[in-house]
Structures are given as C-alpha cells and as structure tokens.
Amino acid sequence: MTESAPLRFDIVTLFPDFFASPLQSGLLGKALARNIAAVHLTNPRDFTTDKHNRVDDEPYGGGVGMLMKPEPIFAAVESLPQLPRREVILLTPQGEPMAQPLLQTLAANYDQLVLICGHYEGVDERVLHLVTREVSLGDFVLTCGEIPALALLNGVIRLRPGTVAKADSLKYESFEAGLLDYPQYTRPAVFRDWAVPEILRSGNHAAIEQWRHEQQCQRTAARRPDLYAQWLQQSTPE
C-alpha cells in the first residue's frame, strides 16, 4: 500500500514568523516532520514593485483604515505551484463559518490549500477573483488572518491519516456525530469530594455507551440548543 502524498498548505501572509512556533509544536510539528502535510509560507511584500514595498493603500470612496492591495496578493498566489485539487481560501469574517464538516471536506478532498491571510480593513474586492472559498473563524473581528489560518491548518491536519495515533478517537469527539462530547474522567476516582460516576467504573460497556449518549444529548441541549435542534432534525426519520 503506497503512502498518500502530503497535503500542501501555501499560506500567503505578511507575518511568516507568526507560524514558526506552532509549526514545530505538538502533533502539528510531528505531522509535518512525518510528511503528512507540508506548509509553505509566502509573503506578498516580496512581490511589491515600489521602493517602499507597500502592500496597503487607502480605500476608494473614503473610509477608516487601509486595504491590502490586489497586485502583491495576485503575484504571490500566481507564483505558487498548482496541484490538481486546489482550494484558494480567504480568511475573512464574511466567509462561511469554520466547522467540523468543512474541515473534514478539506482534509479528504484536496491536494493543496492556499490560505490568504487578510490584514488592516481587509483586502481589495478584486482579490476574490483568485478565491474559491471564504472562511470565517466566527462572528467576531481579529487583528489578522493568521489566527484563523492556523486554526484551519491545525483542524485539517489532525484529520489526516497518521496524525492522531488512535484514529478511532476522532470518531468520538464533539461535533463528529452532531453532538457535543460527553463528560470524561480519569484517576483519582474521588477528588475533593467529587466522585467519578459509578457507571464509568462498572465495567458494563453497553451501559456506559448508553450513559455517554444520554450525556451528549443533555449537554448539547443545554449548551448548544441550535446544534441539538439540528441533530434532532437529522436523526428523525422522514
């Protein structure tokens, strides 16, 4: 059985140093060392043509702040190799929410993910002619696109075969079945008068599975009623 080619990430960023430590740490660092994925950093500033290396300018029509210019971004993206199954992603608050099904799709169906990290007040609208997907980390605004880019990169790589030692553990996480994760405990059995539920120490695996499912439903209904309503709808036969 031949090993699959590494998933290639090309991150277009004004701050390549932002990724230095995360790319060397934990499971992410190990996955890159094992060639499960490969990350390449490209700085749009290297593609500027003026003496000041400007990557931003004032918006037409006025307004507060600056916009990233299109020319350096286009030049940076067009300098990259193009693999057969490629997605060019702009990290922006206006994109689709970053959720587990999206990460699963990206992990399973692409050879190359190009991540464009925005700055200032965003990017010139014409950059969208390069983009095949817009993704948001959530309904809030950050100082840079590197933070959601790192979150996406981490979430995708951990789903690639070989990153997580126990692949089955990926099946029992929050969101995998449309529900939040169940409560989990480890030793000691009693800590500051808080005891591990007796059923988890019973050895009755069928009862434990039932308890865990009930806890998932209760926790999701209490904490994420939106997810619970969606799960109920999908679980109800037509």
State the distance separating the first and last CA atoms.
41 Å
Q: Could you name the CATH topology of the largest domain? A: Alpha/beta knot
User: Which percent band covers the strand fraction?
Assistant: 15-25%
Helix-strand sequence:
EHEEEHEHEEHEEHH
Assign the CATH superfamily of the largest domain.
Answer: SPOUT methyltransferase, trefoil knot domain
CATH architecture of the largest domain: 3-Layer(aba) Sandwich
State the name of the first-level CATH class of the largest domain: Alpha Beta
Could you explain how this protein is built, in words?
The protein has 238 residues and is an alpha/beta fold. It folds into two domains: 7-157, SPOUT methyltransferase, trefoil knot domain (Alpha/beta knot); 174-235, Orthogonal Bundle (Trp Operon Repressor, Chain A), CATH 1.10.1270. It has helices spanning 26-33, 70-78, 100-109, 146-157, 205-223, 225-235; strands at 7-12, 37-42, 56-57, 67-68, 86-97, 112-117, 133-136, 190-191, 194-195. The model has no long low-confidence stretch (mean pLDDT 92).
Q: How does the SSE layout of this entry go?
A:
Layout lengths: L6 E6 L13 H8 L3 E6 L13 E2 L9 E2 L1 H9 L7 E12 L2 H10 L2 E6 L15 E4 L9 H12 L32 E2 L2 E2 L9 H19 L1 H11 L3
Parallel strand pairs: 1-2, 1-6, 5-6, 5-7
Antiparallel strand pairs: 3-4, 8-9
Helix pairs in contact: 3-4, 5-6
